[in-house]
Amino acid sequence: MIKFDDSFMLECEEIDKDHAWLNQLAEDISAAIDEDRAEDCAELARRFVSLCKKHFGAEESLLKRAGYPDAQHHHEHHQSLYGKMETIVKLGEAAATNELARKSLKKEVFYLLMDDIINEDLSFKEFVHKMSKAQAKA
Ligand SMILES: [Fe+2]
Ligand SMILES: [Fe+2]
Fold first, then answer.
1. Terminal C-alpha separation, the chain
2. Which numbered ligand comes closest to the C-alpha of 10?
3. Which band of pLDDT confidence, cut at 50, 70 and 90, is reported for residue 126?
4. Backbone angles phi, psi at 48, to 5 degrees
5. Ligand 2 center to residue 128 CA distance, Å?
6. Which are the contacts of 1, defined by CB distance < 8 A and separation ≥ 6?
7. What's the gap in Å between 117 CA and the centre of ligand 2?
8. 97 CA distance to ligand 2 centroid (A)?
9. 120 CA distance to ligand 1 middle (Å)
10. Going from the N-terminus, what domains does the chain have, and what CATH number goes with each?
11. Residue 121 C-alpha to ligand 1 middle, in angstroms?
């Protein structure tokens, strides 16, 4: 499992809070599986996906407000993750009775998180950081 540490912080409170909360839910899913509470996975997976969608919307509107030049590209990246989110909901529903679904679910939630944060969000870290510094000075 990847350790969620300061290197994943974008230094933008609104976004970092969402990422930390998503990471917590991913860990809750993992714990439910390890502790033989896989019947909790359906609800946890639905919550994870619903927070992801909300987070993507909030992140996109923040990038637009900030005038981030690649906002459209980031929107498309988020869109490309919708299929994976549907898979996560289905795996959550199957987890109570299916060993393979439990194993896949554990991986998929962290992959999704890493796809969003490591692969893409860190690319606007500097931009967002500069913007919030400029706002603080104004
Ligand atoms: Fe993102
Ligand atoms: Fe994000």
1. 41
2. 2
3. confident
4. -60, -50
5. 12
6. 30, 110
7. 5
8. 31
9. 6
10. 12-137 (1.20.120.50)
11. 5
* CA dihedral (103, 88, 110, 13) positive or negative: negative
Buried b (16+ CB within 10 A) or exposed e, 30-42: bebbeeeebebbb
DSSP codes, the chain: -----GGG--S-HHHHHHHHHHHHHHHHHHHHHHTT-GGGHHHHHHHHHHHHHHHHHHHHHHHHHHT-TTHHHHHHHHHHTHHHHHHHHHHHHHTTT-HHHHHHHHHHHHHHHHIIIIIIGGGGHHHHHHHHHHHHH-
Convert the pLDDT of each residue in 14-62 to its tens digit: 899 999 999 999 999 999 999 999 999 999 999 999 999 999 999 999 9
User: How far, in Å, CA of 118 to CA of 135, rounded?
Assistant: 26
Structure tokens at 38: 């896989």
Q: Helix 82-94 and helix 41-66: axis angle, to 10°? A: 160
